[in-house]
Design a protein that fits this description.
Layout (H helix, E strand, L loop, with lengths): L3 H6 L5 H12 L8 E5 L5 H8 L3 E5 L20 E5 L8 H9 L5 E7 L10 E5 L4 E5 L2 E7 H10 L3 E6 L11 E7 L10 H12 L4
Parallel strand pairs: 1-2, 1-3, 3-4, 5-7
Antiparallel strand pairs: 4-9, 6-7, 8-9
Helix pairs in contact: 4-5
Length: 210
Protein backbone atom coordinates (compact mmCIF):
# COMPACT_ATOMS: atom_id res chain seq x y z
CA UNK A 1 0.00 0.00 0.00
CA UNK A 2 2.90 2.37 0.75
CA UNK A 3 5.32 1.24 -1.95
CA UNK A 4 7.81 3.54 -3.65
CA UNK A 5 5.17 4.44 -6.25
CA UNK A 6 2.92 5.85 -3.50
CA UNK A 7 5.45 8.57 -2.73
CA UNK A 8 6.08 9.21 -6.41
CA UNK A 9 2.42 9.70 -7.31
CA UNK A 10 1.09 11.52 -4.27
CA UNK A 11 0.17 15.15 -4.78
CA UNK A 12 1.83 17.43 -2.22
CA UNK A 13 0.26 20.87 -1.88
CA UNK A 14 3.33 23.04 -1.36
CA UNK A 15 1.19 26.14 -0.80
CA UNK A 16 0.30 24.59 2.58
CA UNK A 17 3.92 24.90 3.62
CA UNK A 18 3.43 28.65 4.03
CA UNK A 19 0.32 27.98 6.16
CA UNK A 20 2.37 25.59 8.31
CA UNK A 21 5.17 28.12 8.71
CA UNK A 22 2.67 30.83 9.63
CA UNK A 23 1.14 28.57 12.27
CA UNK A 24 4.54 27.69 13.75
CA UNK A 25 5.32 31.38 14.16
CA UNK A 26 1.93 32.12 15.71
CA UNK A 27 2.46 29.27 18.18
CA UNK A 28 5.73 30.79 19.38
CA UNK A 29 8.11 28.36 17.70
CA UNK A 30 11.41 30.15 17.01
CA UNK A 31 13.80 29.71 14.11
CA UNK A 32 17.30 28.53 15.04
CA UNK A 33 16.08 27.74 18.57
CA UNK A 34 13.31 25.14 18.48
CA UNK A 35 13.67 21.80 16.69
CA UNK A 36 10.77 21.06 14.34
CA UNK A 37 10.06 17.45 13.36
CA UNK A 38 7.85 16.64 10.36
CA UNK A 39 6.25 13.36 11.39
CA UNK A 40 5.15 11.26 8.44
CA UNK A 41 7.21 13.62 6.32
CA UNK A 42 7.63 11.23 3.41
CA UNK A 43 10.88 11.89 1.58
CA UNK A 44 11.62 15.09 3.54
CA UNK A 45 10.59 17.82 1.09
CA UNK A 46 8.90 20.01 3.72
CA UNK A 47 11.78 19.62 6.20
CA UNK A 48 14.29 20.67 3.54
CA UNK A 49 12.13 23.65 2.60
CA UNK A 50 11.91 24.74 6.25
CA UNK A 51 15.68 24.35 6.70
CA UNK A 52 16.19 26.57 3.68
CA UNK A 53 14.14 29.23 5.46
CA UNK A 54 16.18 29.08 8.69
CA UNK A 55 14.27 26.50 10.72
CA UNK A 56 15.88 23.63 12.63
CA UNK A 57 13.78 21.04 10.84
CA UNK A 58 14.02 17.29 10.34
CA UNK A 59 11.62 14.54 9.28
CA UNK A 60 10.74 10.91 9.83
CA UNK A 61 8.34 8.44 8.25
CA UNK A 62 7.32 4.79 8.77
CA UNK A 63 7.17 3.94 5.06
CA UNK A 64 9.16 6.33 2.84
CA UNK A 65 12.36 4.83 1.42
CA UNK A 66 15.46 6.23 3.11
CA UNK A 67 13.55 8.19 5.76
CA UNK A 68 14.46 8.04 9.47
CA UNK A 69 11.87 5.74 11.04
CA UNK A 70 9.02 6.87 13.28
CA UNK A 71 5.43 5.79 13.80
CA UNK A 72 2.50 7.39 15.56
CA UNK A 73 1.25 7.34 18.19
CA UNK A 74 4.25 6.73 20.47
CA UNK A 75 7.30 5.77 18.42
CA UNK A 76 8.26 9.38 17.65
CA UNK A 77 11.50 11.17 18.67
CA UNK A 78 11.39 14.13 21.03
CA UNK A 79 11.21 17.59 19.42
CA UNK A 80 10.13 21.11 20.35
CA UNK A 81 7.44 21.22 17.69
CA UNK A 82 5.77 18.70 15.41
CA UNK A 83 4.18 18.98 11.98
CA UNK A 84 1.61 16.41 10.84
CA UNK A 85 0.79 17.33 7.24
CA UNK A 86 -1.78 14.87 5.89
CA UNK A 87 -0.82 12.22 8.42
CA UNK A 88 -3.68 11.78 10.91
CA UNK A 89 -6.12 10.61 8.23
CA UNK A 90 -3.79 7.60 7.80
CA UNK A 91 -3.98 6.69 11.53
CA UNK A 92 -6.71 4.42 12.89
CA UNK A 93 -7.19 6.63 16.00
CA UNK A 94 -6.23 10.19 15.00
CA UNK A 95 -7.47 11.69 18.28
CA UNK A 96 -5.48 9.26 20.40
CA UNK A 97 -2.40 9.77 18.22
CA UNK A 98 -2.52 13.55 18.72
CA UNK A 99 -3.09 13.16 22.47
CA UNK A 100 -0.13 10.75 22.73
CA UNK A 101 2.13 13.15 20.83
CA UNK A 102 1.16 15.97 23.20
CA UNK A 103 2.30 13.86 26.15
CA UNK A 104 5.82 14.73 24.98
CA UNK A 105 4.96 18.33 25.99
CA UNK A 106 6.08 20.11 22.81
CA UNK A 107 5.78 23.84 22.35
CA UNK A 108 3.43 23.29 19.42
CA UNK A 109 1.88 20.86 16.95
CA UNK A 110 0.62 21.89 13.51
CA UNK A 111 -1.81 19.48 11.86
CA UNK A 112 -3.11 19.52 8.28
CA UNK A 113 -5.98 17.20 7.37
CA UNK A 114 -8.24 16.93 4.28
CA UNK A 115 -11.62 18.66 4.38
CA UNK A 116 -12.99 17.02 1.22
CA UNK A 117 -13.64 13.51 -0.06
CA UNK A 118 -10.46 11.67 -0.98
CA UNK A 119 -9.76 8.76 -3.28
CA UNK A 120 -6.74 7.60 -1.26
CA UNK A 121 -7.14 3.98 -0.18
CA UNK A 122 -4.64 4.47 2.67
CA UNK A 123 -6.99 6.75 4.64
CA UNK A 124 -8.66 5.49 7.81
CA UNK A 125 -10.47 8.84 7.93
CA UNK A 126 -11.49 9.68 4.39
CA UNK A 127 -11.63 13.33 5.39
CA UNK A 128 -12.52 15.65 8.29
CA UNK A 129 -15.42 17.98 8.92
CA UNK A 130 -16.34 20.26 11.81
CA UNK A 131 -18.59 17.97 13.88
CA UNK A 132 -20.59 14.71 13.63
CA UNK A 133 -18.44 11.69 12.89
CA UNK A 134 -19.81 9.18 10.39
CA UNK A 135 -19.03 5.75 8.97
CA UNK A 136 -20.00 4.62 5.48
CA UNK A 137 -19.23 1.94 2.92
CA UNK A 138 -16.48 3.27 0.67
CA UNK A 139 -14.73 1.99 -2.44
CA UNK A 140 -12.15 0.18 -0.24
CA UNK A 141 -14.52 -1.01 2.48
CA UNK A 142 -15.72 0.74 5.62
CA UNK A 143 -14.57 4.34 5.86
CA UNK A 144 -14.97 7.16 8.36
CA UNK A 145 -15.45 10.88 8.32
CA UNK A 146 -13.59 12.26 11.34
CA UNK A 147 -14.00 15.65 13.01
CA UNK A 148 -12.06 18.75 13.93
CA UNK A 149 -13.99 18.72 17.19
CA UNK A 150 -12.31 15.42 18.04
CA UNK A 151 -8.84 16.89 17.40
CA UNK A 152 -9.59 20.01 19.46
CA UNK A 153 -10.91 17.84 22.30
CA UNK A 154 -7.76 15.69 22.19
CA UNK A 155 -5.63 18.82 22.55
CA UNK A 156 -7.69 20.10 25.48
CA UNK A 157 -7.46 16.71 27.20
CA UNK A 158 -3.69 17.23 27.44
CA UNK A 159 -3.88 20.82 28.67
CA UNK A 160 -3.29 22.50 25.29
CA UNK A 161 -5.29 25.07 23.41
CA UNK A 162 -6.08 24.79 19.73
CA UNK A 163 -7.76 26.59 16.86
CA UNK A 164 -8.58 25.50 13.35
CA UNK A 165 -8.53 27.36 10.09
CA UNK A 166 -8.39 26.47 6.41
CA UNK A 167 -5.40 26.45 4.13
CA UNK A 168 -4.88 29.40 1.81
CA UNK A 169 -5.96 27.44 -1.27
CA UNK A 170 -9.38 26.91 0.31
CA UNK A 171 -10.16 30.59 -0.14
CA UNK A 172 -9.95 30.11 -3.91
CA UNK A 173 -11.38 26.56 -4.05
CA UNK A 174 -13.54 26.00 -0.92
CA UNK A 175 -14.86 22.69 -2.29
CA UNK A 176 -11.26 21.39 -2.11
CA UNK A 177 -10.57 22.62 1.43
CA UNK A 178 -7.93 21.32 3.78
CA UNK A 179 -7.94 22.18 7.48
CA UNK A 180 -5.03 23.48 9.54
CA UNK A 181 -5.20 22.81 13.28
CA UNK A 182 -2.74 24.77 15.42
CA UNK A 183 -2.09 23.36 18.90
CA UNK A 184 -0.14 25.30 21.52
CA UNK A 185 0.19 26.09 25.21
CA UNK A 186 -1.09 29.66 24.96
CA UNK A 187 -3.83 30.96 22.72
CA UNK A 188 -1.99 34.28 22.16
CA UNK A 189 -1.51 34.93 18.47
CA UNK A 190 -3.49 31.84 17.48
CA UNK A 191 -6.49 34.12 16.96
CA UNK A 192 -4.69 35.54 13.91
CA UNK A 193 -5.00 32.16 12.23
CA UNK A 194 -8.80 32.20 12.41
CA UNK A 195 -9.34 35.01 9.92
CA UNK A 196 -9.47 32.74 6.86
CA UNK A 197 -11.95 30.26 8.28
CA UNK A 198 -14.61 32.96 8.65
CA UNK A 199 -14.54 33.35 4.88
CA UNK A 200 -14.73 29.57 4.47
CA UNK A 201 -17.74 29.30 6.81
CA UNK A 202 -19.44 32.10 4.90
CA UNK A 203 -18.97 30.09 1.68
CA UNK A 204 -20.48 26.96 3.32
CA UNK A 205 -23.51 28.89 4.50
CA UNK A 206 -23.99 30.62 1.15
CA UNK A 207 -24.01 27.28 -0.65
CA UNK A 208 -26.30 25.60 1.85
CA UNK A 209 -23.80 23.42 3.69
CA UNK A 210 -24.37 25.02 7.07
Amino acid sequence: MYGDDYFERRDVDKSEWFDIERALKALGVKKRRHRVLDVGGGTGDLARWLRGRGWLADYCDPHAPGAPYCRLPRDVPQADAYVLQHVLEHVEDPYGALAALLEKRPVAVVVVVPGHFSGDETHYCNHFRLVVEEEYEGAWGRARICTLYGLLSAARSRGYQAVWTVDTRSLYAPWDADFVVAVGRRIGRLAELRLKHKQYLAWLLFHGYG
